[in-house]
Amino acid sequence: MTYLPFFVFTGIFAIVGIVLPIVAPKGPNRGIVQCVLILTGACCWLFWLCCYMAQMNPLIGPKLHQNTILIMAREWGNMINLTETIEPHAVGH
Amino acid sequence: MGSLFRSEEMTLCQLFLQSEAAYACVSELGELGLVQFRDLNPDINAFQRKFVNEVRRCDEMERKLRYLEKEIKKDGIPMLDTGENPEAPQPREMIDLEATFEKLENELREVNQNAEALKRNYLELTELKHILRKTQVFFDETASEYHEILANRHSQLTTTFSSRPFKYENLRVKFLNRCQMADSHREEEQLNLLEDGPRGQQQQNLKLGFVAGVILRERLPAFERMLWRACRGNVFLRQAMIEAPLEDPSNGDNVYKSVFIIFFQGDQLKTRVKKICEGFRATLYPCPEAPSDRREMAMGVMTRIEDLNTVLGQTQDHRHRVLVAAAKNLKNWFIKVRKIKAIYHTLNLFNLDVTQKCLIAECWVPILDMETIQMALRRGTERSGSSVPPILNRMETYEDPPTYNRTNKFTNAFQMLINAYGVASYREMNPAPYTIITFPFLFAVMFGDLGHGAIMALFGLWMVLKEKPLAAKKSDNEIWNIFFGGRYIILLMGLFSMYTGFIYNDIFSKSLNVFGSGWKINYDASTIMDSKALQLDPAHDFGRTYPIGMDPVWQVAPMNKIIFQNAYKMKISIIFGVIHMIFGVVVGLFNHRYFKNTMNIYTEFIPQMIFLIFLFFYMTTLMFIKWTKYSASNPDPHSAHCAPSILITFINMVLFKKSTVLTEACETPFMFAGQEFLQKVLVLSAFICIPWMLFAKPFIIMQERKKQQHQPILPFNGEGQDVENSGAQSVPPADQSQTGGHGNEEMSEIFIHQGIHTIEYVLGSVSHTASYLRLWALSLAHAQLAEVLWNMVLQNGLKTGGAIGGVAVWAIFAFWAVLTVGILVLMEGLSAFLHTLRLHWVEFQSKFYSGLGYAFQPFAFESILEGGGSSED
C-alpha cells in the first residue's frame, strides 16, 4: 500500500518517457520529439521522486500555532472537545 | 532530413553558370535559400564589379519606391499587403519597372510642385485677405482719434516745444492725462516723430506712410523690438493675430502668423522698415489707402481664393488617384526590386571565366539538399531558355564549413539561446535539443508556483494560438518582439512552473490539500491549550506520505517551514545540478566519438566522469540513502537525531577527517557499513584523475611526435647536406599545420592548454556544483516574496469585514494582482530566466561545447526581404 504512489507515478512517467518516444510519429522531427519526451519524463519523475522521498521518513514535524492546530483538528477530522479541559481550569481559578 | 542534434554536413561546391542562365538560376536559389555564396573577388571594390550598374539602377528604383511610400503614408492611404511573394522578374522586365516608377515619380513630383505653387498662392491670398480685414479695423478705429489727438497736441507743442526740449517729460505726463484713450506706446511714438521732424513744418510732414504684412507669431516680439531700436521709436506698429493656423506649403506644417501694420514718416524710415521686414521674413502686401480700394481688393481676393480652392481640390484628387493606384502594387514592387538587387549583388560575388561566357561561383551547400539545389538550377536554366545546363561540382577543402542547424518555429528560439553564447563548431553536438526541456525545467525549479506558472503559460499559449495574426502585425516594439520570438519558451516555462508549483504545493503562496495531509493532531485538549505553539511529533503524528508534492501542513507551519524546505530544496538543487553536469560530460563523449578522438576519451572523458561521479554523484547518493534509512520512527542507530549531515560528511570525506559520532546511542557517524573505506577509495581515485587529466594527453602527443619525427629524419640525414632539400622537406609539415588544425603547436603550449583545461574542470566542478544552489536560492526567494505579498497586501483586504471590506478587497486585490504580475511574474521571471541561461551557458555547456563555428548564412530572399533589403547595403 505504501508503495502504491511510487508505482503509479513511475508508471505515468515511464509512459511519458519511454512508451511515447517509441510510438512517436515518424517524420523529420521524430528525434526531437523523442528527446523532448524522454527528458520531460526523466525530469518530472525525478522531481516528484525527490519530493516524495524527502517526506517519506520525516525527521522533524511541523511546528504549528495553537489556533492552527485547533482548526486543523476540526477540519481534518478528530475534533477536540475543548469544553472538558476549559471547565476545570475555569473552576480552578 | 538532418536533425538538430548536430549541424548539417556541408560541402563546398563550385558552380558554373551560363551567362544568360545565371540570373534565373540565382533567382531560383534565392527562393530556395540553401546556398551560401563566397565572395570570389574580395579585393575588387564595390564600384568595379561587373553588375554594379544594375545594382545602382535597383538602388535608384528603390529610392523612387521609398519616395512613393512616403507620399502614400503622408496621405494615409492604406497599402495593400496581400502577403504574396512574386518571383524575381526577368532582367528585361527591369526596364518596364524602371519606366513605370519613373513615370509615377515624375507625375507625382509635378503634381506636388503644382500643388505647392497653388498652395503658396493660396497662402498669399489668405494672408492678404486677413491683412485687408484686420487693417480695416486699424484704420477705422484710429482715423478719428488719431487726427484729433494730433491736432490737439500740435497746438500745444508749437508753443512749448521749440524753446524747452528738456520739458518733454512733463509734457508727456500732461499729455497722457489728457488723452487717456491713446495707449502710451503710440503716444511715445508721436512724440518722437515730432521731435525728429523739422519743427516748423510738422503739419505737412504728418502725412504718414505705412506698410502692412504678416509675420510668424513667435518672431513678432523680436521684430517689434528691432523696429523700435532701429528706427529710434519713430515708427508705429499695430498687430493682430490671425486665429486660424495657416499651412506652410513647403512642408505642410501648420504655422501661426500675425498681421501687422507699420506707420512711419519719410523715405529713409521706409527703407529701414522694409529692410527689417525682410530680415524677419515678414511678407509685405500692398494695401491701398482708400477704403473703397481696399473693399474692392478684398472682393477680388475672395473670388480668387474660391477659384484657387477648386483647382487645389482637383489637384489633390489627382494626386490621391495616382497614389491609390500605386499603393495597390507598392509592396509587390518593393519585393521585386529587392529581389533583383539581391540577385545582382550575388552575381557580383562570382568570377567570370576567361571566355566571358560563364560565371563561376563557389558556395557552401548542405549535402542533403544537393538534389533540391540541382532541381532548382535546372528550373532556372529552363526558365532562361539556355541550352547548357549548369554544373555543380563538389570541391575538397580544408576550411571549416559553416554551421547550419535546420530549425523550425518551435526549435528556433532555443537555437537562438545557444547561438547567443556562440555558434557551434562544425558538426559539434548541439545543446539546443536538450535545452528545449532542461531550460524550462530548471527555470521552473526556481519559479515554482502553480498560479504564477499558469499566468505565464496562458500568456505563452495566447501568443502561440494567435501566432499568425500577431506575426502579421510586425511590431517595432523590441520588448514585444523578444517575448513573441520566445513564445514557445514562455509556454514551456509556464507549463513546467505549473508542475513544479504543484509539487512545491504553492499557488500564490498558498497550498492545496488535494489528497489529504498525512499529519494528524493527536494532542489532547489540555496540551494544546497550555502552549502557544506545538511541534508535531514525526514518530507519532505522521500517517502517510503526501503522494504528490509537499504536504500542505508545511504551508501553515510558519516556524519551521523554511528549515524543512531549505533542506529539501538544497538537496534537489544539487541532485539536478550534478545530473545536469554529468549529462554534459556524456554529451562530450559523443563529440569525442564522432570526431574519432579516442585519445580524448581516455585522457579526458574517463577521468572527468570519475571525478564527477566519485565525488559529487556520491554525495547525491548519500542524500537518497539518508532519505530512506533515517526516520523519526526508527530505533536508535537510524533515528532522527542520528542522521548525519551530508555536507559535513562530504567535507570530512574530502579532507580525510574522522567524522564524530553525534550521540552515544548512534554508535557510528556513518550511514552504512564500510562507508569510511569506500569514501577513502573514492576520494583517492578522484584525486588520481587530476594528474591523469593534466599529463596524459600531452605525454601521448609528445610520444607520437617523437615517432613521427624519427621516420622522416633518418632518410634525410642519409641523403646529405643540401640546403634546398631541407627546405623542400619542411614544406609538408607546414601544409599539415594549416590543414589539420593544431599540428605543429609548441609542446609547452599543449601543456599549458591542458593545464588550464584541467584546473578549469576540477575547480569548475566544485564551483559549478555550488552554483546550482541558485536553484534553491531563487526558489526560496520567489516563495517568500509571494508569501510576503499575500500577507502584507491581500490579507488586509480579506480580513476587513462588512460592506467596506467588499470595497477594500476589490481595491486591494487590484493592487495585489498588479504586483503579482509585475514583480513576481515579470521581474522574478526575468531573473530566473537569466539564472537559467547562466546555468546552461556556463555550468552545462562548459562540459562539452566549444562554440567556435560560424553560422551558415544562405542567400535567401526571405531573410533579405525581412531585413527590408537594408542589410546588404
From TrEMBL, chain A:
Membrane topology summary: Multi-pass membrane protein
GO cellular component, as recorded: endomembrane system; plasma membrane proton-transporting V-type ATPase complex; proton-transporting V-type ATPase, V0 domain
Any Pfam family matching the protein: ATP_synt_H
Keyword Ion transport: yes
Subcellular location: Endomembrane system; Membrane
Residues spanning the membrane: 6-24, 36-55
Chief location category: membrane
Keywords per UniProt: Hydrogen ion transport, Ion transport, Membrane, Transmembrane, Transmembrane helix, Transport
Molecular function GO terms recorded: proton-transporting ATPase activity, rotational mechanism
Assembly description: V-ATPase is a heteromultimeric enzyme made up of two complexes: the ATP-hydrolytic V1 complex and the proton translocation V0 complex.
Family named by the database record: Belongs to the V-ATPase e1/e2 subunit family.
Task performed by this protein: Subunit of the V0 complex of vacuolar(H+)-ATPase (V-ATPase), a multisubunit enzyme composed of a peripheral complex (V1) that hydrolyzes ATP and a membrane integral complex (V0) that translocates protons. V-ATPase is responsible for acidifying and maintaining the pH of intracellular compartments and in some cell types, is targeted to the plasma membrane, where it is responsible for acidifying the extracellular environment.
Stated name of the protein: V-type proton ATPase subunit
Organism: Chironomus riparius
TrEMBL record, chain B:
Keywords: Coiled coil, Hydrogen ion transport, Ion transport, Membrane, Transmembrane, Transmembrane helix, Transport
GO CC annotation: plasma membrane; vacuolar proton-transporting V-type ATPase, V0 domain
UniProt feature coiled coil, ranges: 51-128
Region (Disordered): 723-743
Protein family membership: Belongs to the V-ATPase 116 kDa subunit family.
Positions with biased composition (Polar residues): 723-739
Subcellular location(s) per record: Membrane
Any matching Pfam family: V_ATPase_I
Membrane topology, record value: Multi-pass membrane protein
UniProt KW Coiled coil keyword: yes
The keyword Transmembrane is assigned to this record: yes
Domain of life: Eukaryota
Listed GO MF terms: ATPase binding; proton-transporting ATPase activity, rotational mechanism
Role, per record: Essential component of the vacuolar proton pump (V-ATPase), a multimeric enzyme that catalyzes the translocation of protons across the membranes. Required for assembly and activity of the V-ATPase.
Name this polypeptide is given: V-type proton ATPase subunit a
Protein's GO biological process: vacuolar acidification
Stretches that traverse the bilayer: 436-465, 485-504, 572-590, 605-627, 677-696, 802-827
Organism: Chironomus riparius
